Amino acid sequence: MATSTSTGILDDARTAEREELVELLTTAYWMEIETVMNYIANSVNPDGVRAQEIIESLREDIAEELGHAQQFAERIKELYGVVPGSEAFRPSQGYLQPPDRQTDIVHVIRGVIEAESGAIEHYQRIIEFAGDVDPVTEDMLIAILRDEQKHRRLFEGFLREYEAEGRA
Ligand SMILES: [Fe+2]
Ligand SMILES: [Fe+2]
């Protein structure tokens, strides 16, 4: 007698959900890669005494965002997807391009907050979708979401300080 073993999200019957998840995870992967690129640039470009705290903070974030990209890549493969190569990359972080003046730290702070907010929004969507079909992806995203909330909160604090001093 044939027995049917359920393998959850890896079941043949779940192909459509898997493909949708792989698409969402691929978008997340590119968001992390673009964030790494822009955090590297913005951790080097800024000038001035006041920029040093931002530079230090972004340097630490780069490793975390790279780690996120690697986690997304792993999960894409586990769900039978293929991690894309660089030719599929399309940039979307216009707001994180280098400012005209490299002492314009507020531009960088606002750009980081926007990048983190975008990640938070997209990862919440994945959590919502995965919640019904793939608790492992949901679990992974919850941990990553906390990192992004932490990053956003830190840069909100920087912005508050600049606003309090009338510089933002
Ligand atoms: Fe990230
Ligand atoms: Fe982040």
Describe what you observe in this structure:
The structure is a single chain. With 168 residues, this protein is an all-alpha fold. It contains four helices and no strands. The protein is elongated, with a radius of gyration of 19 Å. The protein binds fe (ii) ion (2 copies).
Question: Could you give the topology of this structure?
Answer:
Layout lengths: L14 H28 L8 H28 L26 H29 L1 H30 L4
Helix pairs in contact: 1-2, 1-3, 2-4, 3-4
Bound molecules: fe (ii) ion (2 copies).
Structural class from helices and strands?
Answer: mainly alpha
In DSSP terms, counting alpha (H) and pi (I) runs of 4 or more, how many helices? 4
> What fraction strand?
under 5%
How many distinct beta strands?
Answer: 0
The helix/strand series, from N terminus to C terminus, equals HHHH
| Largest sheet, strands/sense/barrel | none
Using the alpha-carbon principal axes, give the shape.
elongated
Overall pLDDT score: 96
The protein's oligomeric status is single chain
* Low-confidence regions: none
Bound molecules: fe (ii) ion
The separation of the N and C termini measures: 71 Å
- The radius of gyration over CA amounts to 19 Å
Helix content: 55-70%
In short:
With 168 residues, the protein is an all-alpha fold.
Keyphrases for this structure?
168 residues; binds fe (ii) ion; 4 helices; mainly alpha; 68% helix
